[in-house]
Amino acid sequence: MKVKDVPQDLKYYEGTHVRDVNYAVDDEGKYQAVLSDGWAPKTEALELALEEDVDKDERSRMKLQTQADFKGFELALEHRPAAHCENGTISSLLRYHGIDLSEPMIFGLASGLFFTHITFIKMGGLPVTSFRTFPGVLFKRITKLLGIKTKTRRFFSPEKAMQALDRLLLEKKTPVGCVVGMYDLPYVPAEYRFRFNGHNICVIGKDEETNDYCVLDSNVTQKETISRDDLAVVRFPAGGVYPLMGQMYWIKSVPEQLPDLKPLILKSIHKTCWFMTSQPKFIKYVGANGILYLSERIRNWETMMGKRKALLNLAQVVRMLEEIGTGGAGFRFMYGAFLQEAADVTGINELNDYCRRITEIGDLWRDFAYKASRIIKKREKDQYTYNDLGDLLQIIGEKERDLFVDLDRTVKSYMQGE
Questions:
Q1: What is the pLDDT of residue 5?
Q2: Which of 26, 243, 320, 390, CA to CA, is 20 to 30 A from 194?
Q3: Distance between CA 381 and CA 391 in Å, rounded?
Q4: Among 17, 14, 85, 63, CA closest to 43
Q5: Beta bridge partners of 33
Q6: Cα–Cα distance between 287 and 275 in angstroms, integer?
Q7: What confidence score (pLDDT) does residue 380 get?
Q8: What number of other Cβ atoms are within 10 A of residue 352's Cβ?
Q9: Per residue in 133-172, is it b (16+ CB within 10 Å) or e — as a string?
Q10: Low-confidence residues in the chain, pLDDT < 70
Q11: How many angstroms separate the first and last alpha carbons of the chain?
């Protein structure tokens, strides 16, 4: 995707601070992070999901919180929008401790790229399709790789969870990452609030007179303020797939000197390639196998489940591919930006070739989302079928397998020379 093609289809973001970050290439082929006001195919998938929403009445009463004038204690940490919430929160925690890594570098070093299409695990009653590793894994991997000591805690009591947060923030003077539910976040548009208990924010300040907190949320363009009551609610959400129990995490200490990034980059790329290509064919739900499995299943969705359920499944895939915080194309563009930066850091120019290849694959994923949206909206012009989508997914799956097999062969040749 070119910078000039980053979509600006403003709709539900109007009047809010929420924006997407897409990774796109400029005229010189260099990746940049570009703010986006949204993309019509993603919006159309969202609207179909909202038609089935069991929380319609409750959602209609939601009010958007405008930012309060925060005057309390605040750690010296600037806000940077990011494409993905966990990457963005990790970036904030690292920067506070003097480690400034780009979002693509964090994602790449943590081997965040993946694919799963699991029919026996449901989210909102629909099969789970994911384009990244499991939530929480990125923080554990990147800090372990860099030799950083961390701590993660959960709680049975909201009050104890908030007290522990205050001790870290006010006494230890350290920023805290919190995993929260999206549904009750007051500064997010009502249309984008769904029962997903895996959003990450960074808490950096508190006004002890008003009991408001200052937070960095990667999906917004500036610092946000949230009340103590609201923060306690989102840390202990009522619904969702799994209970969060006030989960929070922070950095305890960093090494005096970071390890050399080159061998870490090669090791991380090798791990990503292994995740995407190592499974035997009978393990069909994950990696490149998972994409080909989805290619087979999607052709029969209407027959298996009926037209309406097939459309809902399709909308679910598009939302997971392009929902708030992927950087576009299910993290494929972000991984391209990582490979480009990795080429500069390591001096391995071949990585730029793989950057171009995964960028082309990312464009195919965007094409998939566009064609899926035509089916969702039942457009007579340029009407596509589920077989068309299956054909495209087969091409994508084969290209991803070839890419990661070739990439692994290249990085292993350099790892052997280390």
A1: 84
A2: 390
A3: 20
A4: 14
A5: 23
A6: 6
A7: 59
A8: 16
A9: bebbebbebbbebbebebeebebeebeebbebbbebbeee
A10: 10-12, 66-68, 240-241, 324-325, 379-382, 417-418
A11: 34
Q: Are strands 126-132 and 224-227 parallel, antiparallel or unpaired?
A: unpaired
Give me the pLDDT at residue 71, please: 86
> What pLDDT is recorded for position 69?
78
Measured CA to CA, the distance from residue 309 to residue 361 in angstroms comes to: 28
Query: Angle at the Cα of 88 (from 86 to 90), degrees rounded to 5?
Result: 70
What does the block give as tokens for 378?
């039942």
pLDDT at residue number 203: 98
What is the DSSP pairing of strand 199-207 with strand 176-180?
Answer: antiparallel
One-letter identity of residue 324: I
> Bridge partners of 215?
203, 224
Residue type, 182: M
Residues contacting 15, CB < 8 A, separation 6+ = 64
In the chain, what's the furthest Cα-to-Cα distance?
A: 62
Cα angle 240, 242, 248 (rounded to 5 degrees) comes to 105
Per-residue tokens: 409: 């062969």
pLDDT of the residue at 10: 65
Full-model pTM: 0.92
* CA 20/CA 219 separation, integer angstroms: 6
Secondary structure string (H, E, C) spanning the chain: CEHHHCCECCCCCCCCCECEEEEEECCCCCEEEEEECECHHHHHHHHHHHHCCCCHHHHHCCCCCCCCCCCCEECCCCCCCCCCHHHHHHHHHHHHCCCCCCHHHHHHHCCCEEEEEEEEEEECCEEEEEEECCCCHHHHHHHHHHCCEEEEECCCCHHHHHHHHHHHHHHCCCCEEEEECCCCCCCCCHHHCCCCCCEEEEEEEEECCCCEEEEECCCECCCEEEEHHHHHHHHCCCCCCCCCCCCEEEEEECCCCCCCHHHHHHHHHHHHHHHHHCCCCCCCCEHHHHHHHHHHHHCCHHHHHCHHHHHHHHHHHHHHHHCCCCCCCCCHHHHHHHHHHHHHHHCCCHHHHHHHHHHHHHHHHHHHHHHHHHHHHCCCCCCCCHHHHHHHHHHHHHHHHHHHHHHHHHHHHHHHCC
Look up residue 250 and give its two tokens. Answer: 């922070």
pLDDT at site 233: 95
163: its two tokens: 């007290």
Q: Parallel, antiparallel, or unpaired for β 113-123 and 126-132?
A: antiparallel
